Amino acid sequence: MMKMLNPIFKTAQLTAIDRYTIEHEPIKSIDLMERAARNFTKKMLEKIPEPRKFCIVAGSGNNGGDGFAIARILQEKGWKARVCLIAYSKMSPDCEINRHRWKGDCRMIESVEEIEFEEDELIVDAIFGSGLNRKVQGLIAEIIGKINKSPNVVIAVDIPSGLLGEDNSRNDKEAIVRADYTFTFQFPKLAFMFAENYPFVGEWEVVDIGLCAENIRSVPTDYFYLSEDFVSALLPRPGKFAHKGTNGHGLLIAGSAGMMGAAVLASKAAIRSGIGLLSCHVPAQERTILQTTVPEALIGVDRSEKCFSGIDHLDPYTAIAIGPGLGKAPETVEGIKELLIRWKGKMIWDADGLNILAENKYLLDFLPENSILTPHPKEFERLAGKSENDFERLNKLSIFANHYRIYILLKGAHTVIASPCGKCWFNTSGNPGMAKGGMGDVLTGVLLGLVASGVSPLEAVLTGVYAHGLAADLLATEKGYRGICAGEVAENLGKAWRILEGGTKRTDISGK
């Protein structure tokens, strides 16, 4: 059985999936709400195990109905809970049912002065759900402001109130709840993947509420997120009779005078990512550095003493990675032009390789189809122009990948992978300790190791990005975020691959 993708749906699609489940399970909407509330409460109490008091701030829609149900379930479990109800409109039918089922403390809030939070209370935000389609104003905006100014821990039910599911470019950021945790129903929202929304979403986890799996598979989407089980099922396993000749021969073009550390990091990562043979093309005067630090690599020297200027023989290679520590000398630019004319195989681009493409945009038309580009946001801006916000950048990323028929990895907390077919995957591994120099060089090496060994570009980018982050996550458990460095991530890749190779199933990544 093929492993199902982890989809991300837009708000209108989520509403339709809810409705389909109610009609075809079949289940009453109030009973689906009860199931969601119980699963939410279970997840929340796993995060907040010690005794606490809860203040549920509820609206009059279905998110408020969730809030009343959560309050009742907490009370059943012996926890102290109260509800502050903001009646901004007539109650939805399910909210009204759960309001009557709630036998505890409920205070109607008609002015911001009427709501106060006790010092040891945990605030549960159940004002608006994912169906919100407008900016929040008036009394509710004032109450949200008061929640945000309080020192209390805040947990959002499904989505922080005031945050829209996709595009928040025109939203009032002062009228969005700033949650510490968000427990979201069945799927993360697209907005959760954007750095600009992290102050509102905080740490998020998915709560399975049992929506119809058959219907979920049938609803089209261009957005997905990576998980360990998905990547593990996707990763090809080496054959019993594999040898260095069948595992590919990759070429790394990297380094320049004073910048050889990048070449070392990329080389170490490639060696630890399944490549059969690795050749490194480096400036003539810098060859000793790689020969002593990465003895597994074969070394080829450039005609130039200090930088890349060209390479004569390309026949042996199954993939090429270019960019780490490369520099932008005039002869390097000419060498890249010549390379693009002669090489039409698999390519990975990083760092100064990307910067040279950005400064000579006509070269983009010469990129081999299915090339992999790995920019950080500033590098992508140089390639494709400025974006006003993360949502606009995502759309631009997808258009750019489709236009040039390439894969683009926009690096960040949720690295997003845009494919030529218009689909995007968001990574969920990795941590803030990776925000240090050299991490991108390691990722380039991982991708070269995978692609050179015969892994398809799509499988390589999905498994490579996740494994890169997983290696850093494993390090963080030993050394904390501050103690992580790029070299140790490269050294730690073997542990990540061992975990991911534990599964046996193959994954369908067609998105159909």
Low-confidence stretches at least 5 residues in length (pLDDT < 50)? none
| Domain unit count | 2
Estimate what percentage of residues fall within beta strands.
5-15%
| Sheet/helix structural class | alpha/beta
Number of H/I helices: 18
Query: How many strands, what sense, and barrel or not for the largest sheet?
Result: 11 strands, mixed
CATH arch. level architecture of the largest domain: 3-Layer(aba) Sandwich
Highest CATH level, the class of the largest domain: Alpha Beta
Q: State the helical fraction.
A: 25-40%
CATH-defined fold name of the largest domain: UDP-N-acetylmuramoyl-L-alanine:D-glutamate ligase
Strand order of the largest sheet: 1-9-18-17-16-15-14-13-10-11-12
The CATH superfamily of the largest domain bears the name: Ribokinase
Quantity of strands, as a count? 18
Structure in words:
This protein is 39% helix and 15% strand. The protein has helices at 11-24, 29-47, 62-76, 93-101, 138-149, 198-201, 213-218, 228-234, 260-271, 287-293, 330-342, 351-359, 377-384, 390-404, 439-452, 457-479, 486-491, 493-500, and strands at 7-8, 53-58, 80-85, 105-108, 121-126, 154-157, 181-185, 203-207, 223-225, 249-253, 277-282, 298-301, 319-322, 346-349, 372-373, 407-410, 416-418, 424-426. It has an eleven-stranded mixed β-sheet with strand order 1-9-18-17-16-15-14-13-10-11-12. Helix 9 packs across helix 15 (439-452). The longest helix has 23 residues, at 457-479. Residues 14-217 form the YjeF N-terminal domain. AMP binds at residues 411-415, 440. InterPro entries: Carbohydrate_kinase_pred_CS (IPR017953), CARKD (IPR000631), Nnr (IPR030677), Ribokinase-like (IPR029056), YjeF_N_dom (IPR004443), YjeF_N_dom_sf (IPR036652). (6S)-NADPHX binds at residues 62-66, 129-135, 158, 262, 325, 376, 441.
